[in-house]
Design goal:
homodimer, 3-stranded antiparallel beta sheet, DNA-binding
DNA sequence: TTAACAATTGAATATCTGTTCAAATGTTAT
DNA sequence: ATAACATTTGAACAGATATTCAATTGTTAA
């Protein structure tokens, strides 16, 4: 058998390439997207915004009151949530009503809760 | 009709309390756990570690080689992943082999990927 | 058109997070 | 014992992140 180049005492170059070829590990760009997406669930204000929006649409001022935060702080977070398409909004007069973008969001929240509760 | 105390032009105190009573928004402690949990998926190194572990257990040195990172950096991240029970490990000689803690992890990764791909 | 209000924006600051580096721990073989 | 190796740990530094504050945009009503 031919000599194999060792990377660590256990992993051989062939194995490493095999693992990478299997393609179950997203490439750099996709990992970046994925982590940016999950980052949205990793801040208490954002997680609470998403949780509150499960019950229907709310405007920025409502969210600020519910979170006990300033409208500015909430708006900054909503901007991030918009950037990864987790929320959508519609204008009604002076106000912007925000809502969850789709059902995925709730599923994900529930899965997270399931994990930490068990 | 009785006068209601307004919080914002739209949300009334009764509504706010109703929303909070519905209990679909986790309390402070649970939100903290939840965000700490999701935070684990929000760093590229950690996300790649979890992705690589889908294909079977790997030791720290292997992961370091696959990630092109130092064993120290990997170990620090593994410590965080252990802290929220996303990975488990077993010792074999000098090495520690890490594995995903349960199926939840893969489900979550897939849901995240599903969201960003659509 | 002006005033009032809801929300957004950008810059500054304080905090959090991830990596590095050196030292320590645990295991195996000599 | 000692040496060699895999991994962990803690402290220090650099970069990322969330909030605040002041200024701005957009909408409605007088």
């Amino acid at each position: 058998m031919e000599k194999m180049e060792r990377i660590t005492p256990y992993l051989f170059l062939e194995e490493k390439e095999a693992i990478e070829r299997q393609g179950r590990v997203p490439d750099e760009g996709e990992i970046r997207h994925l982590t940016d997406f999950f980052k949205m669930f990793s801040d208490p204000h954002r997680a609470r915004i998403l949780s509150f929006l499960r019950q229907g649409e709310l405007c920025v001022g409502d969210l600020a009151a519910l979170l006990d935060a300033t409208p500015s702080a909430v708006s900054h977070q909503l901007k991030l949530l918009r950037s990864v398409h987790l929320v959508r909004y519609r204008r009604e007069g002076k106000m912007l009503f925000y809502a969850l973008a789709d059902g995925h969001v709730e599923e994900l929240l529930d899965q997270g809760l399931e994990h930490i509760r068990e």
